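Record type: monomer structure entry
Structure origin: computed from sequence
Chain ID: A
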Amino acid sequence: MLEELGMEEKVKGKLMIIGGAEDKEGECVILRKLVELAGGQGGNMVIMTVATEYPQSIGERYTRIFERFGIRHISVIHVDSRCHANDDELVNKIDGATCIFFTGGDQLRITSLLGGTKAEEKLKEAYYRGVIIAGTSAGASVMSETMITSGNDEDAPKKCTLKMAPGLGLLRDVVIDQHFAQRGRIGRLLTAIAQNPHMLGVGIDEDTAIIIDSDAVFEVIGSNAVTILDGKTLDFTNVSELKPDEILALTNVIMHVLPAGYKYDIKTRTPVIRR
């Protein structure tokens, strides 16, 4: 039986959540850090290409990158059916990993193909025993209990134009958005918070990531920033399904913007300011 998160636990193991378009040619700060967290040369990296329509080329590209940084044991797993997600050989590869990395693509493919299967169960068992779970772009969105699947980019936030679905549930009471500043997604993250004010909205820019430990404190790395929206202080919203296309009204939302080196405590909802 998998151990469930307790009421006060927001995260159980270690996560790296990447906003997409991470540097793959230059200093590669994020991917180098992931290799370090995976155990370096002695690590066993599993690349999950389930989200993408181009699993061979994406898998080969990340394999070359991780090999360049010294990882010797790399497996690429592309799950193309729920039957495949229950395959014992596939499950054993997940079971032996020191890092499980989800590429970008379509986050609904991840949850619809893995949800309720042996692969998902082994993924969560690995997470609970401290294996680093990472994801970029769609692989980032899927980490939380509830994920954004689509919404208007760059528009003013509207009442009910956002689509959300259950994620993998590795991170509680948080909703992740990726490619954040580059695609103008603050409106849709505000809409997510209006609909779910108990959740923390975390928007991660491209070539930027957060690393979350089991103490539920995350650190920002990469070249851009992370935007945090806290709706617990929200004292008014006009969100309603009756007039879904109307502009959203929100008052008293707390926002933080944190670049690399800064930290944030998810449990206390407070930034850790670098002095």
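Annotation 1: The mean pLDDT is 93.
Annotation 2: DSSP finds seven helices and 17 strands in the chain.
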